Amino acid sequence: MPMLRHNAAMTIATDHELPVGVFDSGVGGLTVLKAIQDALPRENLVYLGDTARLPYGTKSPVSIERYAMQAAAKLAEQGIKLLVVACNTASAVALESLRAHMAPLPVVGVVEPGAMAAVAASPGGRHLVLATEATVRLGAYTRAVRSRDSAARVTEQACEMMVALAEEGWSDGEIARAIVRRYLEEAGDTAPDTIILGCTHFPLLKDTIREVARDGVQLVDSASTTAAAVSRLLDRHAACRAGQAPGSLRLLATDGAMRFARVGGRFLGQELQQSDIELVDL
Ligand code: DGL
């Protein structure tokens, strides 16, 4: 495991020009990055998609933790003032270890903000969590929701193929609908009030999930609540970037720059070229 380098420039209070670092196993975390960009347009951002090792969701906790540590270390090497784990799987498995290793750098995960959004959307409600195998295995959302709302009922369904659909850019159409329908059937007739998109890839499939799910179900994800958590932290540490100039964005990936640009551009609402993506080794 690479040593994490900490220096004074990395503490949140000293250099506010440093970017906020964001990582996911692939392009899914761009849904969170976009929400941060919209909420905090003046912040510099650096995003890492560990596309070479995607998916994380089918791997063992030991491997997921190792990958998450390496991704975090790569971003820390660049110099960041805050780390966002824009991956539910890595948040569920490795958030505490990341916090311990990265201290004093603040680390924000996406499971708690997602659970918070679900409880706010439907207090005492029935929630169906769609997530990766690893997130479901750990029951991370059930714990996070029930610690805030003991009356809530939570069912979790692993939907690993939806990660591949999102990465491929096949977020709508017949194939996407059939796969989503199959997973909702597998979950059983839980008549949820909310469907929690417990994987940062799944907001891409929002329209398809809405088409297939029963009427009236609210879809909840952690993107905007995570952006709000980042904003609160920067405020609390008086660490927001000064001035009015728009923030910069760097995009790093561990493989497949062309695919990353093709699919990632759709998330960000801006055309990306292969040359906009820096390939890195972890
Ligand atoms: N986007 C990730 C998540 O939020 C993981 C997808 C994967 O790598 O399996 O869980």
Describe this structure in words.
44% of the residues lie in helices and 15% in strands. By secondary structure, the protein is of the alpha/beta class. The longest helix is centred in the N-terminal third of the chain and has 18 residues, at 61-78. Mean pLDDT is 92; it is low at 1-11. The protein binds D-glutamic acid.
SSE topology sketch:
Blueprint: E1 20-24, H1 30-39, E2 45-49, H2 61-78, E3 82-85, H3 88-102, E4 107-108, H4 111-121, E5 126-131, H5 133-138, H6 140-148, E6 153-158, H7 160-168, H8 174-187, E7 194-197, H9 206-212, E8 218-220, H10 223-236, E9 249-253, H11 257-268, E10 277-279
Parallel strand pairs: 1-2, 1-3, 2-9, 3-4, 5-6, 5-7, 7-8, 9-10
D-glutamic acid (DGL) binds at residues 24-25, 28, 54-57, 87-89, 132, 135, 163, 199-201.
Main features:
6-stranded parallel sheet, single chain, 282 residues, binds D-glutamic acid, disordered N terminus, 4-stranded parallel sheet, 15% strand, 11 helices, alpha/beta, 44% helix
Q: List SSEs in N-to-C order.
A: EHEHEHEHEHHEHHEHEHEHE
Radius of gyration: 18 Å
Q: What's the helix count?
A: 11
Cα distance spanning the termini? 10 Å
Mean pLDDT: 92
Major beta sheet, strand line-up: 4-3-1-2-9-10
How many β-strand stretches? 10
Biggest beta sheet attributes: 6 strands, parallel
Distinct small molecules: D-glutamic acid
Helix content: 40-55%
Give start-end ranges of low-pLDDT stretches.
1-11
Task: Kindly estimate the percentage of residues that lie in beta strands according to DSSP.
Answer: 15-25%
SS-based structural class?
A: alpha/beta
